[in-house]
Design a protein that fits this description.
alpha/beta, three-stranded parallel β-sheet, 4 helices
Length: about 140
Amino acid sequence: MGLPLPAGSLALAHYLDMEAQGDSYDRNGEVDAIGDREGNLQFIKLFLGDADSRDPLANLLHADLAGMAPILLQVGNRDVLEDDSVRFAALASAAGVDVTLEIENGMPHVFHFLAGHNAVADAAIARAATWARVRLGLA
């Protein structure tokens, strides 16, 4: 559309696969107290309504990612959405996007909510802030 791109996208608790197909649902379903496949499929249905779950405007794993602004993805390795991030980062990288994927050991979905009580969450937020400052020209 000829519009300028954003400075970047910072994804902390991101749904990328509107089909909930990642193996991390099986691997992490018992340890991620916030999410599971069935619950997420219900949430996705509420979000999408009658829209096609494979529509590239809704499911970025089916989108043409070429030309996207830089992206930072932070996810825990106990998040049911971990594979969404891994798959998306690979697709974005293959499309030439400047993408950074950080996977935090032992962390569940939306582990950033632990900020102020968890050193891993605090460090991840600090790195995200530094990443954003650089993209915004504030560093």
